[in-house]
Amino acid sequence: MSDIPMDVPLPSAPAEDTSQHVAGRRRWVLLWSLLINFFVLLALYNGVISVLLPNQVAALDPAAKAANLAIVMSITSIFSTLTTPIAGALSDRTRSRWGRRSPWIALASLIGSMCLFGVSLVTSLWSITVLWVMAAIAYNAMQGPLSTVVADRFAPANRGTASGFIGAGMTAGGTVGIIVAGQLASQLVLGYLVFALAVAACCVAFVFLNREVPSEHLKPAPFSLPGFLRSFWIDPRQYPDFGWAFLGRFTIYMGYQGVVTYQLYILRDYIKLSVDQANVVIGNISAITFVMLLFSGLVSGFLSDRVGRRKPFVFFSSVIMAAACVVPLITPTVEGMYLYAGIVGLGYGAFTAVDMALMTQVLPRDTGSTGKDLGILTTAINIPQAISPVMSAWLLGLSGGDYSVLFIAAILFVFASSFFVLPIRSVR
C-alpha cells in the first residue's frame, strides 16, 4: 500500500453495502444461529485442546507428555495464525450461487470434522499432529468467514448485539466443552466423534437457515500473487484506527492469556492448595467466571447498540480486568481468587461483547476485503495465545517461580490496552 501524506485528507468511505443486512425474524434467526455455531466451535476447541488431545498424547508416552503436547500445539498455532487471514481473503474473492462465505463455512467444517475424527483413530505422535493440524486449518478457514458474517449482514447499529450473542456462545461453549470432554475422556473415539458431528451439522444448518445473497454477479479484482501477498500488510499510518484496534486487542489477550494458562499452577504454588483442592477450586473459578461472562456479554452488547458507542465499553472493560488482577496480589487466598474470577469475568464479558463490533467498524475502506481484514485482526488473538505462555514461563524463571509476576504483567498489558482504543477516530 502506498503512503498517504498526513496533511492530505483521506477520501470519504464508499457507501456500505446494505443488500445483505437482515431485519425482523431473519435477524433473530441469524443471531441465534451465530450463538449456537460459536458455542459448538468453542466447545470443540476447549474440549479437544484441554481434555481429549492431552489424554491421547499422554497415553503414547507418559514421561514426555508435556513436551509432546507442546510440539503439537506449537505447530498448530503457526498454521492457525496463517490460515484465518488467508481464508478470509479467498472468501472475499469467492463467487458462487451460495455467496462468498457460505461455501467456506459448509465445506471447511465438513473437511475439519473428518480430519478431527481421524485423530481418534491414529496411534502415533506424528499422525496425531498431521491430522489435528489439518483439522485446525479447516476449522480456522471456516471460522474466519463465519466471523465476517457480522460485518456482512448486520447494520453497524446492530453489531453490538450480534457481538454479544457470539461472545455468550463462545463463553458457554468453552465451559460446556470441557465438561462434555471430561465425561468422554475414557472413550476418545466417541468424544472426537461427538464434537466433529456437532460442528459439521451446525455449520451446514447455518448455511441453509441463513441463505446468503449469490455472489456470481460480482466481478473480482484482478489477481496477482505479489499483490495478494502485499495486501496482508495494512499500513497503520494509512489506516491508524485499524492499527490501534489491532494493538489494543493484542495487548489485552497477552495479559489475559498469561494468567489463564497457568491458573492451576497459581492455585497450587501461589495460593498453596493441594492438588485435590486446586482441582476443585479451579472448577469453581470457571463457574463464577462463566456466569459473569454470560451476563456481562449479553448486557454490554445490547447497551452498546442502544447508546451507539463502542469505545467506552472497551475502555472500561479493560480497566475492570486490570483491577481484577490486583485482587490476588493483595489477597492471595481462595476467596481472593473467587473475587478475581467474578471481576475478570465481568470485564472480559463486556470486552468480548463489544470488541467484535468495534473491529468491524475500523476496517480499511476497501469493502471488498472484509474477510481478509477481519482475519488479520483475528491474529491479534492467535499470536498472544501462542506466545503469552512462553512469556509467562520466562517471567517465572526470572522471578524464581513467583507467580505474582504474572498478575503484575497482566495488569500492565491489560491496562495499556484500554488506552490504545482512545485514539480511534472512526468509532465513538
What features would you describe in this structure?
There is one protein chain. With 428 residues, this protein is mainly α. It has two domains: 192 residues, Growth Hormone, Chain: A; 194 residues, Growth Hormone, Chain: A (Up-down Bundle), CATH 1.20.1250. Helix content is 75%, strand content 0%. It contains 14 helices and no strands. Helix 4 packs across helix 13, helix 8 packs across helix 13 and helix 11 runs antiparallel to helix 14. It is globular, with a radius of gyration of 21 Å. The N terminus is likely disordered.
Q: What labels describe this entry?
A:
428 residues, mainly alpha, Growth Hormone, Chain: A, 2 domains, globular
Strand-helix topology:
Blueprint: H1 24-60, H2 65-92, H3 102-119, H4 125-153, H5 159-183, H6 188-209, H7 225-230, H8 240-260, H9 263-269, H10 275-307, H11 311-330, H12 334-360, H13 370-399, H14 404-420
Helix pairs in contact: 1-2, 1-4, 1-5, 1-6, 2-4, 2-13, 3-4, 3-6, 4-13, 5-10, 5-12, 8-13, 8-14, 9-10, 10-12, 11-12, 11-14
